[in-house]
Amino acid sequence: MSKAERTKQFIIEKTAPIFNEKGFVGTSMNDILDITGLSKGCVYGNFQNKDEIALAAFDHNCDLMTSFIKERLEKQNKIIDKLLVYPNTFRNFLSLPILKEGCPILNTSTEADDTHPLLKQRVIYRLNYWKSTIEKLINAGIEANEIKTSTNANEFSYLLISLIEGSVMQAKVTNNTEVLKVTMNYLEKMIKSLRV
After folding, report:
1. What confidence score (pLDDT) does residue 96 get?
2. Whether the predicted pLDDT of 70 surpasses 90
3. In this structure, is the dihedral angle defined by the CA atoms of residues 88, 162, 20 and 10, taken in order, positive or negative?
């Protein structure tokens, strides 16, 4: 990695938590300069504008979350056990260091849906990727005769994501983990009910 690439990566890693916590509008150039300790010229020497930093920070936050989940999925052999990674992970959401500021998809979608078209596109891409991952798992489970053939992968993926994001939103805003426990227990039962 060149010095310029290292600097760019440093800026992304340092600003990603701030963008996830404060959002695009709430994160100022001073926040970026304070957290990185770099000059404005150095930051703008690596990024054209705040939008470009925000997009890179969003991707970084999502990549961390995706890697965290993927690592746990790969440790499971059965499809049901892979699906159970989701409630098992999000049940403890508020205690996970990488997600301390909240889910980047949820945080960014509430701000960007009407105000920032580029961030909105990134959120849509990440949601579609997540949905596709769940659908593939369910379809693989049906083919392997682990999941009931009557399972609708499209519907189930929508429900799984909605239950997770809705409970994360409530837990984050109230700082109360009860909603996570109740909802993830319910999701766990839903997943287990898919078993042949």
Report:
1. 82
2. yes
3. positive
**DSSP class of residue 195?**
B
The single residue listed with the structure tokens 């304070």 is 34
Q: Which pLDDT score is estimated for 81?
A: 98
pLDDT, tens only, 112-138:
878 889 999 999 999 999 999 999 999
Paired with 195 in beta bridges are: 147
> 131-154 as b/e, with b when 16 or more CB fall inside 10 Å?
bebbbebbeebbeeebbeeebebe
Residue with tokens 């609708």: 152
Q: How far apart are CA 104 and CA 123, in angstroms?
A: 9
Burial class (CB in 10 A: 0-12, 13-18, 19+), 80: middle
